[in-house]
Amino acid sequence: MNPETLKKAIKDRAKREGYRLNPDENFLESIFEGLYKNVERYGYPSCPCRLSAGIFEEDIDLVCPCLYRDPDLYHYGRCFCGLYMTEAYMNNKDKPVVPNRRPMEPAKIEKIGSRIGVKTVGARYRCKSCGNEITVDKVGGGVLICCGQEMELIKEDK
Amino acid sequence: MIGYAQSVALQRINLKHTRNNMKVKAYTLSTCPYCKAFKRFMKEHNIPLEFTDVDLLEGEERTKVIKEAYSYCSGCGFPIIVIGEDIVIEGFNEPKLREVLHL
Ligand code: SF4
Fold it and tell me: For B84, which of A79, A124, B22, B102 could close a Cys bridge (C-beta 3.0–4.6 Å)?
């Protein structure tokens, strides 16, 4: 991969998925530069605006387009770095600041292991990051994850 | 070739003092456009800035600095700007920065 193929891949992807890229050419170049620097030093284009560990398994949620892009586009109309945007965001005068959705300690599979998560029907869980709230209809026992972290139990049953 | 750690472990730009004499330090990323814009902003306003590009550090120093940086922030958006002892601005929030630095 070279800088040009990376750029082309991102541009093609945005078109395919119906998103727009930041219209500020200088800013765009700066993002591409950052992404390409990460390709060179880590082997993958991890998010230029967040700290990567340099270990693929730990950075998997940060590989651009990161795990947080779509929820951020849905909520704010822009990804955290400001590379991807929605048409509506571009036409909107209000440009909300996008907070970092990545949890400080992302849920790790080895930490969750075989632990039982959901235990009761009717229990309610909330995502500390995006605010999704869900009610359990059927117990499967697994641990619930949203926005890369464990959901918080807010009510045990109905 | 110089290693990452040596190249930009800790850079100091010693210019004039801030109007209210508060020391400004920041934890930054070498790849982040907002960090770059922030550094440019400080330079343009002649405000001394002590910054560390955290992603360029290695080994023990990296662990130490990350711990220190994260102790200041809640969501960890870079740059993490620390003004004086206890004013923390996460991300390049220009209006907030202007307000705090009386610009
Ligand atoms: S925030 Fe945007 S630029 Fe950064 S990794 Fe996610 S999609 Fe890519």
Answer: B22
Q: How far apart are CA B1 and CA A117, in angstroms?
A: 51
- C-alpha neighbours within 13 Å on the C-beta side of residue A123: 18
Mutant choice from B31, B57, B62, B65 vs A, greatest count of A C-beta within 10 A: B31
Is A32 part of a structural domain of the chain?
yes
CB contact under 8 A, B70 and A104: yes
Which domains are present in chain B?
A: 4-100 (3.40.30.10)
A18: domain CATH number? 3.90.460.10
Is any Cβ of chain B less than 8 angstroms from the Cβ of A21?
no
Q: Are the C-beta atoms of A146 and A132 separated by less than 8 Å?
A: yes
pLDDT, block means (10 residues), chain B with 103 residues:
41 43 92 96 95 96 93 86 91 92 89
